[in-house]
Amino acid sequence: MLAQRVLASFQHRYGTNPLLVRAPGRVNLIGEHTDYNEGFVLPAAIDKEIVFAVALNGLNSARLFSLDKAEACELPLGAAPLQPGATLWANYLLGVVAQLQRRGVAVPGFDCVFGGNVPMGAGLSSSAAVECGLAFALNELLHLELSRLELARLAQQAEHEFAGVQCGVMDQFASLFGQAGQVVRLDCRSLEYQYFPFDSAAYHLVLCNSGVKHSLASSEYNTRRQECGQGVAVLNRYYPQVRSLRDATLAQLTQHQTELGEVVYRRCRYVVEENQRVETAGQHLAAGNMAAFGQQMYASHAGLRDDYQVSCPELDLLVELAQGQPAVLGARMMGGGFGGCTINLVPAAAVPGFIAATSAAFQQHLGRPLETYQTTIVGGVSVL
What we know:
By secondary structure, this protein is α+β, with helices and mostly antiparallel strands. The protein has twelve helices and 13 strands. A six-stranded mixed beta sheet has the order 5-4-6-3-1-13, with helices on both faces.
């Protein structure tokens, strides 16, 4: 068991009894590339997690140990402001400490061992789980009484400044605010949120890893952000209330299609339609209509493939294979795109058959095995 391994490693290294905290990864059921357009997302925390053992050590340094990499790192917590270092995994933790210091917290020396089963590079937000887990543990140990929302923002800033990734707040939010058997719809502008029921016993979320690394993702991600910004600039001249694509309508886009140009028009159309899909998907969940919810997932993938153009042949193949199996209710690519995983909505009883059929067809088409992960929806960051 993961928690026991982390605890044993901590006690062996440091000889004291730590606080144990678990921080889950997340999936996003629908609402992709909407977060930086101030739109809506529908994530959930999942049972792939990172466990932390943390205790104050009475020293002026942080002693960190990554169980998965079997690497240690010790850093002074003196007067000088912390800077990102050469040990990449440690930067996610350092970023959290730096954000606490910036808020006037004198972070004392501490020991930390952490390890997890969140697959790296699969788009399950292992980095957010690392940041949120340590932020939560230090909040507990130092009695800071920061709210979960403050911890999410702090973890997001840590990723911006110490990992160089300009992420939205969805990943950190989902890790901290997850609830078992619920998905959470987050308004990325106001940070208001609402829970919707998801029967995790009856329906499973199966992830299929395309095996393609997101080599294009960061450069194309920035391009997509610029294209959305161009669309907003055009619309804003005619409709001053349009501050982001969150405020735009399909009628407005159609009215100014020529001025927007074909590419920007399609990017904007996707975002406006995807926000509507999140809204509709929430209504289907509330009504318990999982088949209708799944159709929104398929429509989301089609938009990402054709209008936003961030899919790849391997992701498209996986969605086609899912669509060919009547038991599967919905599937789409998840995350920034150009690789990573598809997320598939499958009745629990049909999961073994789905994995077997998809794995065989994937192997036949691409000549390599398919990695899959079965997940269920769990609660957010907590003390063990």
